Amino acid sequence: MSNPSLLILPGDGIGQEVMAEVRRVIDWFGAKRDMHFDVSEDLVGGAAYDKHGTPLHDDTMAKAQEVDAVLLGAVGGPAYDDLDFSVKPERGLLRLRKEMDLFANLRPAQCFDALADFSSLKKELVAGLDIMIVRELTSGVYFGEPRGIHMEDNMRVGINTQRYTEAEIERGARAAFDMAMKRSKKLCSMEKANVMESGILWRDVVTEVHADYPEVELSHMYADNGAMQLVRAPKQFDVIYTDNLFGDILSDCAAMLTGSLGMLPSASLGAPMANGRPKAMYEPVHGSAPDITGQGKANPIACILSFAMALRYSFDQGDEATRIETAIEKVLADGVRTGDLLGDEDTVAVSTSGMTDAILAALDASL
Ligand code: NAD
Q1: What is the pTM assigned to this prediction?
Q2: N or C: which terminus of the chain has fewer CB atoms within 10 Å of its end residue's CB?
Q3: What is the CATH number of domain 1-108+263-367?
Q4: Any catalytic annotation for residue 248?
């Protein structure tokens, strides 16, 4: 049988630096766990624009459609800020999500005990926190028509349309229920059924899908209350399913409960391919961080945790994903810190590669 295939798209800025560290982790799995991947690498974002005049070449798009999983670093940077909207680095990312039809965005918010002091909430509210937000990613108000700005009665009017078909709500709901089945069998669906018809449909469809998942405890919550509950008592949640707009906001809010941007992975999943694996792209939540690019200061953990998500959700290697997460937990408990994680008592930061050295040593110790 051939090895599973991975397309690596480092992108711009620290995307390239953190992805180099992920490659060391991938190599470790080859050398120490006899797990081999066919890895190819290509350009996206500003790097692709510099070479091809487009943030995503058609050949790269075609490769992304063929591989078992895509790993993306980050795109963007000041050099590209003034480009036309149609060729901005972010368009490369959006094209990948759209053409791969990645409708379920998984955003874990997990608080490592050693970093609980970094949260803006009290330590006891976040220590041990482990939430998974499943955000519908390809529809809703960011895509609905009509949209635009036009004149009415001599006045400018801005329009966006929240539109969901039941099929769109249902496929995301199935991804969320499947996720709940793999975790603590608890799912909270969030919408605004009190004021939005699309929210009423959302609640109805999620309730209908629930019939196929009788073991899962389903609750519904208005998204505004959800925001309040996330900062009041976040540990009441396990899996949350919500739409594109609310998911955008709620997942950022939940993520910040855990401390630094440099710690946050994500996955975007689509429909199963012929081999049963979902179309999938894994990426850290952070951007290209131009302020620290090229200085060896970037925290590689978000990107390494994104690879762990790939092991779990694309390659059915949950135990090996846990091995990575446990190694990271140990390294943090030992006080190893990149600059973004430095607290008052910590004085010395390790470099990007220094953090990976420590993680690889912890992986070695796990054998
Ligand atoms: P950013 O996430 O790049 O950086 C925000 C702050 O967090 C910066 O101070 C940065 O140094 C710090 N930071 C981020 N990741 C870090 C890491 N791994 N280790 C240590 N510190 C880290 O967001 P921004 O500054 O608003 O945007 C910079 C560029 O990135 C822009 O061009 C933006 O469009 C782009 N961007 C891309 C993505 C993506 O590719 N998914 C996401 C967000 C922003």
Answers
A1: 0.93
A2: N
A3: 3.40.718.10
A4: yes
